[in-house]
Amino acid sequence: MSQAAHLDKLPPEPEKATLEGRNKVLGFWLFLGGETVLFGTLFATFIALRNSVLDGPTGIELFSLSITAIATFILLTSSLTSVFAIQAMHHKNIKNMLTWLGVTVVLGLGFLVLEIYEFYEYVAHDGFGFTTSAFSSSFYALVGFHGAHVALGVLWISLLMLQIKKKGLTTVTAPKIYVASLYWHFIDVVWVFIFTIVYLMGKVG
Amino acid sequence: MAHSVKKYRGLMDWITTVDHKKIGILYFAAGGLFFVIGGIEALLIRLQLMFPKGTFDILDGQTYNEVMTMHGTTMIFLAAMPLVFGLMNAVVPLQIGARDVAFPFLNSLGFWTFFFGGVLLNISWFTGTVPDIGWTAYAPLSGQEFSGTGSDYYAIGLQIAGIGTLVGGINFLVTIINMRAPGMSFMRMPLFTWTSFITSGIILFAFPALAVGLIYISFDRLFDANFFVTATGGNAILWEHIFWIFGHPEVYILVLPAFGAISEILPTFARKRLFGYSSMVFATALIGFLSFMVWAHHMFTVGMGDIANALFGVATMLIAIPTGIKVFNWLFTIWGGKIQFTTAMLYATSFIPTFVMGGVTGVMLAIPPADFQFHDSYFVVAHFHYVIVGGIVLSLLAAAYYWWPKMFGRMLNETLGKWSFWLFFIGFHLTFFIQHFLGLWGMPRRVFTYLPNQGWDTANFVSSIGAFFMAAGVIVILINAIISIKGPKAPADPWDGRTLEWSIASPSPEYNFKQLPLVRGLDAFWLEKMDGKKEMTPAEPLGPIHMPSPSILPFFMSLGLFIAGFGFMYRGYEFESAFMNNLFGYNIIAIFGLAITLVCMFLRSVYDDHGYHIEVEELQKEG
């Protein structure tokens, strides 16, 4: 069966066409529910400990809103591009889907570069390491956990792009793309809270 | 198109299985093993406390702390949890008329992570660094300053086991939402399925909090973080909040499926439908919700202030309302019924008054001023053993006797069953009833010995005698389980049951239902039997059945985490050989372990599992 004929046979929402696909999507939503509690606990800890700075630097001294604003802009845009990828999937346009997924991955990498640069500055120039104070531990735990999620997402979506190239868009691969985009939106939403609670509130003091 | 799939036999079959029934048996076996280990630890505790100081000291203070910590941790996380999961695996897919769970592969992964987490925790006995911080692992006791590698075993062992629980919870939620047979609406689901559903929801929202808390302990200990270290600005009380935000719902995670099992067994042996089905469902959901609202009642004496204490006290008492609804519904279910006292029914009926006693002391503890008196005394020990042994273990035993024929295809011996019941039941009350009074007479909990002539000697002696009765009961249960291998074959429907699992053979075939059944109402199988039918009306024509392939990957994924756990634990440890120091110091072991897991995840993603089909001819041959 040629690729084009195969795509014609694919149902309109291939991610929900099979029971396995529907299970995967629902299971992933639930997993994100659990992740919400995970980040909720990290946020609660951060809020509880953010004033325990000891002799280390405070948020006001550390944070540069321009860098985090750019990071926010990049990550929010990547959420939009992942929506485009899903739309392309629904139009069965594999080429566009891969392009938009590629853009998403590049933006994710851009975000990571900024974050690593930020952490490097803190550690190398500001004397703000993981063990400096309770504030620093909770800061790195929260923001670092989110960064690790972004890194995993980048790897995951890249792997899925390779799979799409090999296997094409099927009712098996479509749910994977769909849940990866759900995941990407989730870490985006978490970042919005990090930007507000860690950086904006940190700047206010 | 039939794919040929390699079928394994013997040990490999058990390691690679993705069949929910076999995984249920694995959970039962592993949970049973840890239950026995935890039971031996309990006996050591009671032997030590049987006589006051100086008469018969078998444990020193340090060893006592280790035994007590491991008893609590093992019983909660490694015995009760897996036994509950074993039951859910064995029963839920059959009760909703499904061929398997939603994620068979993840189901296997859940079991193996739990198992390796439990093994890791217990390896501490052999390295001589056993957790000695209580099952609650309060900071700063669990920090670098006051405890050794044992605390790492606690944090990392539970972390790995916890992954399995979370995965299992998600699996059952999706299974119950998406895979019910035609006609099985939510309000036609048997109550055990309902309680498993709510329990899975609580797991989903409670376990991530524990995961984060355990990560903090590990970070504090292994990477010198400051979360709970007060000297560097951390907050020790924070751990208590995180732990109990998980820890209180955990009680309901365990007890709700126990309630569910009771709600199946009582109607079957009273030969009446469950009284107040919809109020039971409502009460279950309400308990699930309230379970997240009450965690700070474990912390009344911490100093949160009167308003917080009052609010959490009132919220705690609210739980008595849905629980009361349940208790009355159970009583009305057996009221006027044609009661048959099988072993399962004996356990189930004895559960009701026993659990009510645990509930009543719970309400007593929910009153903050009174709690200041009860706190950290044996009264608390008596209370939670009435809830956990009197509530959960009694109903798990009832459930085990009830569903054993379905799980194993063999009947348990009823005479031995009744012996085990009376030994265990009498032993239980003998052990724990008097501990209420020990607490009121001032005996603190978590002490390894006490001076004579404070009025505690006789009570402690009585309590220890009770423990021997319980041990004898458990031994009879084990004997019964072992001889059931050669016992009489179980018929499909030995108890004249009401729900779908009794409409198929014992043990059920690997595909469960040859044709998915059509469900026409609550107590689906009973309805058909009342209409004079022998089996369910099929909802689909006979066709080939798609099955998932067995896989070894879950085993290796969990093994990878297990190895990585050791890598992290011993990264700062000073070994005698330089080679070992390099291996652990540079995180080589940890990275190696994680790499195994990641490679397995990669393989799982890249290679699609096409599964295989059981063809119609094969199905017809099996009849």
TrEMBL record, chain A:
<protein>
    <submittedName>
        <fullName>Cytochrome (Ubi)quinol oxidase subunit III</fullName>
    </submittedName>
</protein>
<feature type="transmembrane region" description="Helical">
    <location>
        <begin position="98"/>
        <end position="119"/>
    </location>
</feature>
<keyword id="KW-1133">Transmembrane helix</keyword>
<keyword id="KW-0472">Membrane</keyword>
<dbReference type="InterPro" id="IPR033946">
    <property type="entry name" value="Ubiquinol_oxase_su3_dom"/>
</dbReference>
<dbReference type="InterPro" id="IPR035973">
    <property type="entry name" value="Cyt_c_oxidase_su3-like_sf"/>
</dbReference>
<dbReference type="InterPro" id="IPR000298">
    <property type="entry name" value="Cyt_c_oxidase-like_su3"/>
</dbReference>
<feature type="transmembrane region" description="Helical">
    <location>
        <begin position="62"/>
        <end position="86"/>
    </location>
</feature>
<dbReference type="Pfam" id="PF00510">
    <property type="entry name" value="COX3"/>
</dbReference>
<keyword id="KW-1003">Cell membrane</keyword>
<comment type="similarity">
    <text>Belongs to the cytochrome c oxidase subunit 3 family.</text>
</comment>
<feature type="domain" description="Heme-copper oxidase subunit III family profile">
    <location>
        <begin position="26"/>
        <end position="203"/>
    </location>
</feature>
<feature type="transmembrane region" description="Helical">
    <location>
        <begin position="26"/>
        <end position="50"/>
    </location>
</feature>
<dbReference type="InterPro" id="IPR024791">
    <property type="entry name" value="Cyt_c/ubiquinol_Oxase_su3"/>
</dbReference>
<keyword id="KW-0812">Transmembrane</keyword>
<dbReference type="InterPro" id="IPR013833">
    <property type="entry name" value="Cyt_c_oxidase_su3_a-hlx"/>
</dbReference>
<feature type="transmembrane region" description="Helical">
    <location>
        <begin position="182"/>
        <end position="202"/>
    </location>
</feature>
<feature type="transmembrane region" description="Helical">
    <location>
        <begin position="139"/>
        <end position="162"/>
    </location>
</feature>
